[in-house]
Amino acid sequence: MSTRRTAMTVALGASLTMLGAGIASAETPVTEPATFTSAFTAMATPDQVLNADGVPTPGQPGATGSFTFRINSDQDIICYDISLNGVSGDYMSPAKTATHIHQAAIGAAGPPRIAFPNPTPVGDGPRTSNGCLQGPFTTGVVTNGADTGTGFSLAALEANGAGFAADSHTTQFVAGAVRGQLTPIPVGGIATGGGGSATESNSGPAVAAVGIAALLGAGLIARRRTMAQS
Q1: Is 42 exposed, middle or buried (0-12, 13-18, 19+ CB in 10 A)?
Q2: Which residues sit opposite 131 in a β-bridge?
Q3: Burial class, 70, CB count within 10 angstroms (exposed 0-12 / middle 13-18 / buried 19+)
Q4: pTM for the model
Q5: Mean pLDDT calculated for residue range 138-147
Q6: Strands across the sheet with 38-44, in order?
Q7: Separation between Cα atoms, residue 195 and residue 157, nearest integer Å
Q8: What does the pLDDT read at residue 222?
Q9: Core vs surface per residue 169-206: b (16+ CB within 10 A) or e
């Protein structure tokens, strides 16, 4: 009886541990969906960093970050390709990771809404992170008794991409090593981020606004993923 009770206690403890882990990290890593409803990019630099009070607080000199996000808001899935260059030292943030999308307009501070796996490897060289996450999202930052990811939907990001910023934080640059505002880019042959539908065609001004670098970056990512799947 004692042995059985001990086994039951261990099993219950393991179950509670797994449940707790699920609560702490609600979003689920998933495979890439077949289609996307929008896509965004952010070119992050140290001069765009602000502290929690919205005061300019320059990040790491010479560092840069490239964030590309592809979204399927119908399934609440976001796929990410993140690279950091010139960022050194360990990560640090009150959130569960140090790499985020914040709901923050240009020149303003705002809460994190999604926390992504930190780019690796940690060191002085390039760092990368990529994959797909499905909501509901959590950040580990609690404000007014609720996680800042609670209730957030990717449809809100699609409706106002410019109202969001991507960043990454380190021990030396706690406010952020780099930060950049989200800008819509084409995906699936349509101009996204502005309420486009799958039946609409690309418009010249929308493509021009993206810029050559963003288009090339998106093309390289798509080609890399196609090659990986073949």
Answers
A1: buried
A2: 80
A3: buried
A4: 0.73
A5: 96
A6: 28-29, 127-134, 77-85, 64-72, 38-44, 183-184
A7: 11
A8: 45
A9: bbeebbbbbbbbbbbbbbbeebbbbeebeeeeeeeeeb
Check residue 187 and give its pLDDT: 85
Instruction: Give the 3-state secondary structure of residue 48.
Output: helix
User: Taking 90 as the threshold, does the pLDDT of residue 57 lie above it?
Assistant: yes
Alpha-carbon distance 190 to 154, whole Å?
18
- Of 101, 105, 95, 96, the residue nearest 82 (C-alpha): 101
Q: Which residue in the block uniquely carries the two structure tokens 């950049």? A: 180
Q: What is the pLDDT of residues 70-107, one digit of tens each?
A: 999 999 999 999 999 999 999 999 999 999 999 999 99
For 160-177, write each residue's pLDDT tens digit: 999 999 999 999 999 999
Cα–Cα distances in angstroms (integers) from residue 58 to residues 67, 101, 161, 180, 209, in the given order: 19, 18, 23, 12, 27
* Residues 103 and 32: beta-carbon distance below 8 Å: no
C-alpha dist (Å) from residue 215 to 4, 182, 194, 204, 207 = 62, 14, 17, 13, 8
How far the first Cα of the chain sits from its last, in Å, is 56
